[in-house]
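Tip: read the tokens left to right.
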């Protein structure tokens, strides 16, 4: 009788639809065993939640030995139709709320603790799954070969990883290589989670120095502005062609030329962009990757601007650069965007994307106690997603 009551509570309060879990809290008293001949009365509290960042639907069940409050005999005597079982459960449930309140734990603080633990469990299982699927650290390649590729791409090449969603302001950056920061003379902190085109290419990045650029190439100021916009829009069209749709990313390898500016030195250069979109195999994150090279020694700033108008030959210039063999992507082993099993570089990008994605999730974790000791200059307003350290420790400990 008591067990059926518990099952009914579970169905009522820990279920709901997959996309709309129940918001109620179930409560039950059952007989339980710890392996000895003496059973005990166990208090069960049930709640179903959706983890906010991953949307993982999970059920929380809390257990406590309450035999000193509800003896075994009392539970059994009440566990029959008309025996007062429901009244006994409700009285005990009210006592639970008083105990939690007296300890400074309310429903919100408990939920925050559950959410943090659920997020840690979810990311931990994801990482374990990825490790299990990977046969070894470098995939099917010799260790020395993969290490060389990893170092070459990480330190010598300029590339970025971003969300696969493009607007007129570009893509939202999630990772930039050291080579990227060197090429564009930017610190990683300056460009974290920003739209790349706001800082890197086109009129967005050069508007403060457009007069200097016009004087440098000997062109009219308005003409330079119009041609900057033409180059920018041409590159954006290629970037959007690479994206495809959210559920069916394109396998197209994109290519574009752009006019960029190094903000510290104030110098302009022609940048070659090689772009692709992939789906990270473990997390399902669709990401945008772009490699960059300074090709001003092959295509001058003036030549790029001279072709940047309808019928001026910009498309032909881009095609000439793209047709040179081997292309940049081919030089690092990317001949197709379809199979990372045959490409060390794609394998590396997927690996870096996985680290970036899990890093984004971990960065979203609420940090206990951070609101009590804010860094200088940071607002002291209490973040509702954070708990004081003592409250967090009390909940975890209890």
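Filled-in amino acids:
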């Amino acid at each position: 009788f008591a067990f059926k009551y518990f099952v009914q509570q579970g169905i009522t309060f820990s279920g709901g639809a997959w996309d709309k879990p129940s918001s109620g809290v179930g409560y039950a008293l059952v007989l339980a065993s710890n392996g000895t001949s003496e059973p005990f009365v166990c208090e069960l509290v049930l709640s179903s939640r959706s983890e906010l960042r991953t949307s993982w639907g999970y059920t929380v069940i809390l257990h406590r030995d309450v035999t000193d409050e509800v003896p075994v005999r009392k539970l059994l005597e009440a566990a029959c139709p008309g025996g007062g079982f429901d009244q006994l459960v409700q009285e005990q449930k009210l006592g639970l709320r008083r105990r939690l309140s007296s300890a400074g734990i309310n429903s919100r603080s408990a939920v925050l603790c559950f959410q943090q633990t659920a997020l840690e469990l979810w990311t931990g299982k994801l990482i374990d799954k990825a490790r299990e699927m990977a046969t070894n650290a470098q995939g099917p390649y010799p260790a020395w070969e993969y290490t060389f590729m990893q170092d070459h791409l990480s330190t010598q090449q300029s590339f970025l990883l971003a969300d696969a969603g493009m607007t007129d302001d570009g893509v939202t950056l999630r990772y930039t290589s050291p080579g990227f920061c060197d090429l564009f003379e930017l610190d990683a902190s300056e460009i974290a989670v920003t739209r790349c085109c706001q800082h890197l290419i086109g009129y967005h990045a050069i508007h403060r120095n457009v007069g200097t650029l016009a004087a440098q190439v000997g062109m009219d100021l308005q003409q330079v502005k119009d041609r900057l916009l033409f180059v920018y829009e041409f590159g954006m069209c290629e970037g959007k062609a690479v994206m495809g749709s959210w559920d069916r990313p394109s396998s197209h390898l994109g290519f574009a030329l752009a006019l960029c500016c190094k903000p510290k030195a104030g110098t302009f250069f022609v940048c070659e962009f090689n772009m692709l979109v992939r789906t990270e195999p473990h997390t399902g994150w669709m990401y945008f990757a772009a490699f960059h090279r300074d090709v001003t020694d092959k295509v001058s700033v003036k030549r790029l601007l001279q072709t940047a108008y309808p019928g001026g030959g910009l498309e032909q210039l881009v095609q000439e650069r793209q047709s040179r063999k081997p292309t940049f992507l081919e030089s690092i082993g990317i001949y197709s965007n379809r199979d990372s099993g045959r490409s060390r570089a794609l394998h590396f990008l997927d690996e870096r994307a996985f680290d970036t994605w899990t890093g984004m999730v971990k960065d979203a974790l609420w940090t206990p106690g951070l609101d009590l000791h804010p860094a200088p200059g940071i607002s002291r307003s209490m973040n509702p997603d954070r708990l004081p350290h003592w409250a967090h420790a009390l909940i975890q400990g209890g």
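The two ends are 29 Å apart (CA to CA). DSSP finds 15 helices and twelve strands in the chain.
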